[in-house]
Design goal:
The chain is mainly β. 7% of the residues lie in helices and 43% in strands. It has two helices and eleven strands; from the N terminus they run E-E-E-E-E-E-E-E-E-E-E-H-H. The strands form two sheets. It has an eight-stranded antiparallel beta barrel. A two-stranded parallel sheet has the order 1-11. The longest helix is centred in the last third of the chain and has 10 residues. The radius of gyration is 18 Å and the shape is globular.
């Protein structure tokens, strides 16, 4: 059985490692842009260094971009809302000034019950650019269906113990169980991250 650790106890920045991108389309060079979203609000954005395409020894257009890059965001895990999304964009490097996104994928930072993502994850990518941050899928389309490859990501394990897991807990809650509606528990620290929408402003008035 697992023992739960409250997300409020994780006073460490959010971090993950972009391992590699396995592409079914031959490309030149690219980087991975990682964005942290809550609803329609972009909270943070970072990107990897540029990597080159290495063609598969079996030939064809299959190949791999190897990054092995750890990305750390300037935000603490404890301050991120339950509905935080992570969007990945495989794009042409800024030096090319082409502003082209070759592929994208996304996932929720927490699953529905409130357990944070950790460990290795292989996420199928859609070809082209992301239409909006609300589109996130942990397992993309089957091979050959609107897919251009697979992004391999290692999410930080903040416990380093397989028997323990980080579970979302809103501020003001003593429980270590997740699944609460964080929209009603926006904290002072989280307000610095979120742009107050009319709905959030209404909630903010109720809290003050």
């Amino acid at each position: 059985p697992y023992s739960n650790i409250s997300s409020l106890a994780v006073i460490r920045p959010l971090s993950l490692t972009i391992s590699k991108f396995s592409s079914s389309v031959k490309l030149g060079v690219c980087c991975v842009i990682i964005e942290i979203w809550h609803g329609k609000d972009l909270l943070r954005s970072e990107q990897t260094p540029v990597a080159k395409f290495v063609q598969d020894s079996r030939g064809g257009h299959q190949g791999t971009f190897t990054f092995g890059t750890k990305v750390t965001f300037n935000v603490l895990v404890r301050d991120l809302p339950h509905a935080t999304r992570v969007i990945f964009r495989v794009a042409a490097p800024p030096s090319m000034k082409s502003n082209v996104t070759y592929a994208w994928c996304g996932t929720m930072l927490y699953d529905f019950p409130g357990t944070i993502m950790r460990g290795a994850s292989s996420i199928r990518t859609w070809a082209g650019n992301c239409d909006g941050p609300m589109f996130t899928y942990s397992n993309m389309a089957a091979d050959g269906v609107a897919s251009s490859g697979t992004l391999h990501v290692d999410f930080e394990d903040y416990t380093n113990e397989p028997s323990k897991r980080i579970v979302y807990t809103p501020y003001g809650m003593n429980s270590t169980l997740g699944g609460y509606d964080d929209e009603l528990n926006v904290t002072i620290d989280q307000k610095k991250l979120l742009k107050l929408t009319p709905e959030n402003k209404r909630t903010d008035r109720l809290m003050t």
